[in-house]
Amino acid sequence: MDIVDSGPGRFVPSPLVKAAADLKGGLAAWRIWTVLALNDVRQRYRHSRIGQFWNTISMAVTILGVGVVFGYLLEQPFLDYLPFLGIGLIVWTFIASSMNELTSAFIESGAYLRSYPGPRSTIIFRVLLRNLMTSAHNVILIPPLLLFSSIPFGAAMLLVVPGLVLCLVTLLWIGLLLAPVSARFRDVPLIVQSALQLLFFMTPVLFRPAHVQDRLPLVTHYNPLASLMEIVRAPLLGDVPAAHHYIMVLSVVAVGLCLALYAYGRVGARIAYWV
Amino acid sequence: MTVESAPITLPAAGPFVELTDVGVDYPVFSARGRSLKGTIVRSVGGRIGVGADHVVMVTALDQVSLSLKPGDRVAIFGHNGSGKSTLLKVIAGIFEPVRGTVRIRGQVSTLLELTMGMDFEATGYENIWTRSVFLGATFAEAKARVAEIEAFSELGDYLNFPMRTYSSGMVARLAFAISTVMRPDILVIDELMSAADAAFAAKSKDRVLGLVEHSRIFVFATHDLAGAKDVCSSGIVLDRGRVRFNGPIDEAIVSYLASLEEADPAEKAEA
Fold it and tell me: What would the mean pLDDT of B254-262 be, rounded to a whole number?
């Protein structure tokens, strides 16, 4: 039973301490966000027969369709290109939909924030887990893609674990930063949505980094999203990601997390007034 | 600060709530107040007519100080808009005050929005589970409490039905049953008992008294004077965001009635 202090008067801790306490409390409330995330997924597909797997079917069809056209445009051997594109689309969809939903996390959960006395990061974890669950349904497409293209399963594939962890931490800080900002400024989710649409075409998802490497380093080399994609996608394709991708993601995470924690701690319980 | 107030002594153990000179202002955003463009433009020079997108602040609470200790059963009275709900949210730790300090120790449970954490497409049983966990139960605890909630809510087979088929009284019964089975340290309720029927209201009262016996803090906002007198030991009367009276329940009711009479002529003058 910790004492919770709040208000601008005495005893009040710094933003970083407050943010850290909120995150700690949010993690401890794992049962709540697990139940909420499960309910979200269930609710979305309650009256549908195969439910969530419509997403997987739609993803499979997209991979095939885009694979045929872009494989032809980029003059790629189909069997070689398909797993790259497929895994890339699955990873991108997870990152982009998580970012979009994290941005509006507090707006859509206004009813909770106005009457739930617990840590607000519970809502962030709920949205993260919900997206992880949704994307997990697409993971069943990965083995067939690999088998189809006879990519051997190897030890490098284990690197997907640190890749995914870094990906989740990235999404966490983006959520901590943008969810409160969006609650206050309702234009932000729309801006994020448009930005992600643009970034989809500017990040190597449809095309390989090799296609533009020398001419567009901004897209492949200095693009944090490209690095984020690479450290999750490359291991799944049996490759070891280049070290600079890890350095890029780690440094962005370090800066982003500090910034996000500070901002999140600063606005604190003001969020309840905004939603 | 020129005047340093005396150090506040806190109870060594048990839940408590301590509000010191708390003030809360609500920002009321217009569509423009929420827009990023509006803020950027305004900070750059505010060319869009001055005052057109000002954020209006409403003072909901002002200079509120109170302290609650285990065993306290407090009723909060006041007109509509006197700050009752805001005060409950501050006591629950949901709202951070703009001025002053709040210190809270103990697990807080709220019954502010009746349907919080409930899914109307899901069955009563599913909602018992969800909401119990939401109120801080472990999965095992949630499971263990189903029988008690079943019995207390008296909803029988309806618990197998989706909640959208429930009447508002049934929803109130279920929500109240789940929220009070949790035995939180601090229970904060915003007048809800009116939603249930009279028989259930009597039962609810027993339940609340039971909670108090476990030496917990119970705070609730109400217009029901008789009900408050039965359940609560003390009362706080709010008037336009300020504490008008804080003391024994009988005197609180007298003060509240007096405030209603005082307000009457003013309201007539406004009309």
Answer: 87
Q: How far is CA B30 from the centre of its chain?
A: 26
- Judge: B89–A272 Cβ closer than 8 Å, yes or no: yes
Rounded Cα distance, A171 and A160, in Å: 16
CA neighbor of A98 nearest in space, from A122, A73, A128: A128
Give residue A51's pLDDT: 75
Terminal-to-terminal C-alpha distance of chain A:
28
For residues B49-64, give the mean pLDDT.
Answer: 69
Q: B89 is written with which tokens?
A: 């949210």
Enumerate residues 97 to 116 of chain B having a beta carbon within 8 A of any beta carbon in chain A: 97-110, 112-113, 116
Chain B residues within an 8 Å CB radius of A19? none
Tokens 């924030």 belong to: A113
B122: contact with A, CB 8 A cutoff? yes
**Partners of B218 in the β-ladder:** B73, B187
B 229-258 residues inside an 8 A Cβ radius of A: none
- Residue A176 banded pLDDT, cuts 50, 70, 90: very high
Show the tokens assigned to A240: 């070891």
- Sequence-separated (6 or more) residues with CB below 8 Å from residue A50: A57
Nearest CA to CA, how far is A116 from chain B (Å)? 7
Chain position carrying tokens 């208000």: A7
Residue B11 confidence class, pLDDT cut points 50, 70, 90: low
pLDDT, tens digit (0-9, with 9 covering 90-100), for B203-223? 777 777 776 666 588 888 888
Nearest residue of chain B to residue A114 (CA atoms): B94
Mind telling me how many Å the CA of A41 is from chain B's nearest CA?
12
Express each pLDDT in A217-245 by its tens digit: 778 788 999 999 999 999 999 999 999 99
Determine the pLDDT at residue A1. 42
Q: Are strands B16-28 and B99-105 parallel, antiparallel or unpaired?
A: antiparallel
Task: Pick the residue of B10, B18, B36 with the most A CBs within 10 A to test the interface with A by mutation.
Answer: B36
ipTM: 0.76
Task: Determine the Cα–Cα distance for residues A12 and B96; give it in Å rounded to an integer.
Answer: 11
Euclidean distance between CA atoms A210 and A221, whole angstroms = 11
C-alpha–C-alpha distance, residues A174 and A97, integer Å: 12
Contact B133 A35 (CB under 8 A): yes
